[in-house]
């Protein structure tokens, strides 16, 4: 059984977004996914307030680089708090 991502009664835009994100996480977990990540994206954050140590997982990983130096960006680690903070890539070498 899946949660409906649309609230049953009218809510403000911020509450609607929160409800959709929570429903998506619950649905992913109910499908047997090991990780239903709230903090994921296709690039390092450029908005919002972040704390040192926060981690954002790459939701669209692909192999990058040149032959014998290929890697995958697993995500981004915040190394200095701020708006949006200072982010470094967390890479894994693929061996290709």
How would you describe this structure to a colleague?
This protein has 96 residues and is α+β, with helices and mostly antiparallel strands. It has two domains: 1-37; 39-96, no CATH class. It contains one helix and five strands; from the N terminus they run H-E-E-E-E-E. The chain has one helix spanning 13-30; strands spanning 40-41, 55-58, 63-64, 71-80, 86-93. Strands 1, 2, 3, 4 and 5 form a five-stranded mixed sheet that branches. The chain is flat and about 55 Å long. The protein starts with 12 loop residues before the first helix and ends with a strand. The mean pLDDT is 85.
**Percent range for helical residues?**
10-25%
Distance between the termini: 41 Å
Let me know the average pLDDT.
85
Alpha carbon gyration radius: 17 Å
Strand tally: 5
Count the DSSP helices.
1
> What proportion of the residues form beta strands (DSSP E)?
25-35%
Instruction: Please tell me what the overall shape is.
Output: flat
Number of domains: 2
Q: What topology emerges from the helices and strands here?
A:
Elements: H1 13-30, E1 40-41, E2 55-58, E3 63-64, E4 71-80, E5 86-93
Parallel strand pairs: 1-2
Antiparallel strand pairs: 2-4, 3-4, 4-5
Could you list some keywords that capture this structure?
alpha+beta, 96 residues, 2 domains, five-stranded mixed β-sheet, 1 helix
Quick structural summary:
The chain has 96 residues and is of the alpha+beta class.
